[in-house]
Design goal:
Elements lengths: L4 H4 L11 E4 L5 H12 L3 E6 L2 H13 L5 E6 L5 H17 L13 E6 L17 H16 L4 E10 L22 H26 L5 E6 L19 H5 L8 H13 L10 E3 L2 E2 L9 H15 L12
Parallel strand pairs: 1-2, 1-4, 2-3, 4-5, 5-6, 6-7
Antiparallel strand pairs: 7-8
The structure holds NADP nicotinamide-adenine-dinucleotide phosphate (NAP).
């Protein structure tokens, strides 16, 4: 039986022809299923990851499907700010090239959908060349860099969707320690990065609302526990094979079901004006108290810009 995210999300009759979508981390797992769904709905999908062979397979699958969807792969390592800047440049070029000035319904013009999904759970402690703890850099800092770099290139009613997690509960972001790997715990680093995804979404939504004249929205979601993605690949030895086994158990979420809320937030009419929210199973969910802390959200935004040595994106009008 067909088990597509767009069916689960109830948006299988939507048509995205003329729209451009970037799905980061779409060479496998939840991102791959999201990219395939947006392609089936007719979008031009920019497939991203580091693995060019896997990216090529996703592009071929989109283009082989019986519909109008098209795709192309862009490689970028999210541990490297230069790669992220190059992905933003490539996205800008692709979206602009697809801009059709004669399109009367205004569908074309800019990036319509940005799904910040690339990321993972990383067992070993590293600092990136920027001197930032690897999990925080890949899971939060690079999505922050990419999104803010692309702000001017977003369509009038673009949607930014970020794959967060229920793992965000129970940790505080200690911004003093993101440049250290002393006492590293992979789980705590993962929790911190996912809390950052929620705080980033809330701050982005607020700044867009207050300081941007367009109708761009930003939301994030928990995909469920999806062991059949590549998520467990970094577990030691035999444990990394666990994913394929537990994926068959009835209570775990498949990558396609995990992608349903991403597709819902990216496409569904009923959430066209929702912004700054956290979803699970296509329903809003209350985030943890630290995730809702406005002071922490603002501090994360400012610290992220400082770490990347860029001007603060979407500053208040008096600072601009
Ligand atoms: N699986 C779960 O249970 C679960 C639960 C909650 C949230 N999530 C979140 O869901 C998202 C997707 O994870 P998944 O479960 O689908 O795992 P996955 O199958 O391992 O997919 C991860 C994707 O991220 C990309 N990626 C990883 N590190 C990267 C890097 N340094 N630079 C660029 N791309 C990178 C991978 O591409 P390449 O390999 O080609 O680089 C791949 O496409 C993550 O943000 C994860 O935190 C997962």
């Amino acid at each position: 039986m067909r088990n597509y995210p767009e069916d689960v999300a109830g948006v299988d009759d939507e048509r995205l022809v003329g729209q451009t979508a970037l799905v980061t981390g779409s060479t496998s797992g939840i991102g791959r299923e999201t990219a395939l769904a947006l392609g089936r709905l007719g979008a031009h999908v920019i497939v991203h990851g580091r693995d060019a062979e896997a990216g090529g397979e996703v592009v071929d699958t989109v283009e082989d499907a019986v519909n109008e969807g098209t795709a192309e792969f862009v490689r970028a390592d999210f541990a490297d700010p230069d790669d992220v800047a190059a992905l933003a440049d490539a996205t800008r070029t692709i979206a602009a090239a697809r801009d059709d000035p004669d399109d009367a319904d205004g569908d074309a013009g800019g990036l319509d959908i940005l799904v910040n999904n690339a990321g993972g759970y990383f067992r070993d402690a590293h600092l990136t060349d920027l001197g930032v703890e690897y999990t925080f850099h890949v899971n939060h800092l690079s999505p922050f860099q990419l999104t803010t770099d692309l702000l001017d290139d977003l369509a009038e009613d673009a949607r930014v969707v970020t794959t967060a997690s229920e793992a965000h509960r129970g940790d505080q972001i200690d911004l003093e320690s993101v440049e250290s790997i002393d006492g590293y715990s992979a789980w705590r680093a993962y929790q911190r990065s996912k809390l950052a995804n929620l705080q980033f979404t809330a701050e982005l939504a607020r700044r867009l609302e207050e300081r941007d004249d367009r109708s761009v929205t930003a939301n994030c979601f928990h995909p469920g526990f999806v062991p059949g993605s590549g998520f467990l690949r970094d577990l030691p030895g035999p444990l990394s094979a666990l994913g394929g086994v537990v994926d068959r158990l009835p209570f775990v979420t498949t990558p396609a079901d995990g992608a349903a809320t991403a597709v819902y937030l990216a496409v569904a009419d009923e959430v066209a004006t929702d912004s700054g929210r956290y979803y699970a199973d296509m329903r809003p969910k209350q985030p943890s108290t630290p995730a809702r802390d406005r002071h922490a959200q603002r501090r994360l935004w400012e610290t992220s810009a400082d770490l990347l040595e860029i001007d603060e994106p979407l500053p208040s009008r008096s600072e601009a």
